[in-house]
Automatic annotation (TrEMBL):
Keywords: Coiled coil, Membrane, Transmembrane, Transmembrane helix. Residues 112-139 form a coiled coil. This is Universally conserved protein. The keyword Transmembrane helix applies. The keyword Lipoprotein does not apply.
């Protein structure tokens, strides 16, 4: 059957998306170690390929795709875990289902029946995958958040306080590292104690995850102060690092927890900037009252 121009473009988009999905699920199946999950991914890959064949037939020609996206999703599966990667894929599938429902109105009987079957397949994919999303990373996500969020707020506060007290970037950077290392040990100990009261988390792993996420954040936040002698430039770069870390983790957690990304990021950024403003005012006050600037310029 011939499709009008707009529907033809939609069919070509769907054709590419389904081919991409088939390739991605196939690639994930190849690196999945769990036999049950691997078999599920292989089955979904086959179904997505059938969907691609449907759109190719409807389109009247083939559609081609590149492989970079497939490699990125496979790398994400290894690094960020199946829970994040599969939820990210299914987030796209939901939008696809919405578009498919709109397309139903423009198709005749046989094609409409086939597309309805495809929609049912896509819904089943989501249900089956969500049942298979056990991932150790999710179990310790709260401890990563504990270390990351506390480090960003606390160390940004330390650096901002020195912005008002001194123009010596090395002093500010070292202060952040010293405070950060001590705080990381304290947070790791608190995480260990918290995990002891839980039956699901391993206390040593919880402490290590919290401590490492804290220390890594501290190092990244302090690094700009050792790369330039400009306090304003160091501070700006450090703030941008903090916002970037916050944004990356917020995106990861909102995908897994299915929360709105924009609102969560806005709240986290507002907390970070509010802490910075309050710390600057306090540091400026101390610098003026105690004459600290004159001592450590």
């Amino acid at each position: 059957m011939g499709l009008p121009g707009e529907l033809l473009r939609s069919a070509e988009e769907f054709c590419r998306d389904e081919l991409y999905s088939s390739m991605i699920y196939r690639a994930l199946a190849e690196i999945e170690k769990d036999p049950h999950r691997r078999k599920l991914l292989e089955k979904i890959a086959e179904q997505e390929y059938e969907h691609y064949l449907f759109w190719r037939k409807l389109l009247g020609r083939d559609c081609s795709v590149g492989r970079p996206r497939v490699g990125l999703m496979a790398a994400g599966y290894r690094l960020l875990g199946p829970a994040f990667t599969l939820r990210l894929l299914e987030r796209g599938e939901r939008e696809t289902i919405r578009k498919y429902r709109e397309m139903l109105l423009h198709l005749p009987g046989a094609e409409r029946a086939k597309l309805e079957e495809i929609i049912r397949d896509e819904k089943e994919h989501e249900r089956r995958l969500l049942e298979e999303l056990e991932d150790a990373r999710i179990k310790y996500l709260g401890y990563v958040a504990l270390g990351l969020a506390d480090a960003i707020v606390e160390i940004t506060g330390v650096h901002t306080g020195f912005l008002g007290a001194t123009s010596n970037t090395i002093v500010a950077g070292v202060a952040g590292l010293v405070v950060g290392f001590s705080a990381a040990m304290s947070m790791a100990g608190a995480a260990y104690i918290q995990a002891k009261h839980s039956k699901e988390e391993n206390p040593p792993v919880s402490a290590i995850v919290t401590g490492i996420s804290y220390i890594l954040s501290v190092v990244l936040l302090a690094l700009p102060y050792f790369l330039t002698k400009s306090m304003l430039l160091s501070f700006t770069a450090s703030i941008l690092v903090g916002i970037t870390l916050t944004g990356a983790f917020t995106y990861y957690s909102t995908v897994i927890q299915e929360k709105p990304f924009t609102r969560e990021l806005a709240e986290s950024t507002a907390l970070l900037l509010g802490t910075a403003a309050a710390s600057y005012a306090f540091g400026e006050l101390l610098g003026t009252i105690l004459g600290i600037k004159g001592i450590i310029e």
